[in-house]
Amino acid sequence: MEVAKDWMQTWSGVKFSILHPTEDMIQIEDIAHALSHVCRYNGHCNRFYSVAEHSILLAEYVYAQEKNSQMALEALLHDATEAYYCDLPRPFKYNLPLYREFEIRLEKIMASKFGLSYPMAPWLKDLDSRMLKTEKNQIMNTHHDWYCDSLEPLSKI
Known about the structure:
By secondary structure, the chain is mainly alpha-helical. It has helices at 28-36, 51-66, 69-76, 82-85, 90-93, 97-114, 122-139, and strands at 7-9, 15-17.
């Protein structure tokens, strides 16, 4: 049996190279499908809460506040790399330099493909952290101190 060396098959059938991704390997349908099946916080929340739901709620919040479809698109796709490289809790993600290297490379490719800013805009990083506070308050059973505790939550999810 052949061992997969550097690619995986996506939902739409694309042969996606994890080591050498290109714009043509990235399909919006694959992103939407995969993120709708990935639970945030490695599933350690009080209900199934997908990365897609998180992204949609953030995009809806941005659009309601700004009435700017480009900003909403940036919010919608801010975690799109996780459709291909998984959703890792932040403490893992930022302590795995090779993962970050792969993710950064894919973020740049996705930014080019979808006309997004790279790197992620500071306003979006701030809102994503505020969304963490919102999620912590609403979908986690135990409330330990998180680095986002001093932030204002966004809204009810």
